[in-house]
Design goal:
The chain is of the alpha/beta class. It has 11 helices and 6 strands. The protein has a domain of about 110 residues: Rossmann fold, CATH 3.40.50. Strand 5, helix 9 and strand 6 form a beta-alpha-beta unit. The longest helix is centred in the middle third of the chain and has 13 residues. The protein is globular and about 50 Å long. The relative contact order is 0.15.
Length: about 200
């Protein structure tokens, strides 16, 4: 599988416009999402939006970093326990980007996987156990499970119930943010409320 390095993630920038061109036209989309947390941190949310916007007509572009920052503001979160699957240089870049926007990650843990395909094989029970250990350290007001390749949907509700903390994941915040940007309405959000704190927020 693909090695997860800052270099390989940054190289995705060269393909974003071409990928966006594959979306059906001439539709103007309310929101288009780029589904890579570490890629967005490496390339930069602004550049991601620019590159995607060159390939498709859309009102908004989202990615997990901007979505996370928006969700944190909506929930009043400033100190996250961050669970990452990435190797240290990739995790460090994400933490720097978050810190630059006022979100601290004083509690951190990683599966330290260098291969993308192996990240997708991390079992939810392993994610729950690791996130539980991070939450037990205290000093945080939320948990973030990073990476759109990480299988997190079934981990969120149990972790929220056990820790009493809002639990966010890359896919959760991206879906919530895109629903919000597209003004998808309360009905869609209501169908997703069981999947974590973000979907219990009003559309922003």
């Amino acid at each position: 599988g693909l090695d997860l390095t800052r270099e390989s993630l940054g190289a995705m920038a060269a393909h974003l416009t071409g990928a966006a061109l594959l979306l059906p036209g001439p539709v103007r989309y309310d929101a288009v999402g780029y589904g890579c947390t570490s890629g967005a941190a490496q390339i930069g949310p602004g550049k991601v939006a620019d590159l995607v916007g060159r390939g498709v007509a859309c009102a908004h572009v989202s990615e997990p970093v901007s979505a996370l920052l928006t969700a944190c503001r909506a929930l009043g979160l400033r100190r996250l326990a961050l669970l990452s699957p990435y190797v240290e240089p990739v995790s460090a870049q994400l933490r720097r980007v978050l810190a630059g926007q006022g979100i601290e990650t004083p509690v951190f843990g990683s599966f330290d996987e260098a291969e993308e395909a192996r990240v997708a094989r991390i079992a939810p029970r392993s994610t729950i156990a690791a996130a539980r250990d991070l939450a037990a350290r205290g000093g945080v007001d939320g948990l973030f499970l990073s990476c759109t390749n990480l299988d997190t949907l079934d981990a969120i509700a149990p972790l929220e119930a056990e820790t009493g903390l809002p639990v966010l994941s890359s896919n959760l915040v991206l879906a919530w943010h895109m629903c919000s940007l597209a003004r998808a309405g309360a009905a869609m959000a209501a169908n997703l409320r069981a999947h974590g704190a973000a979907f219990r927020l009003a559309m922003v």
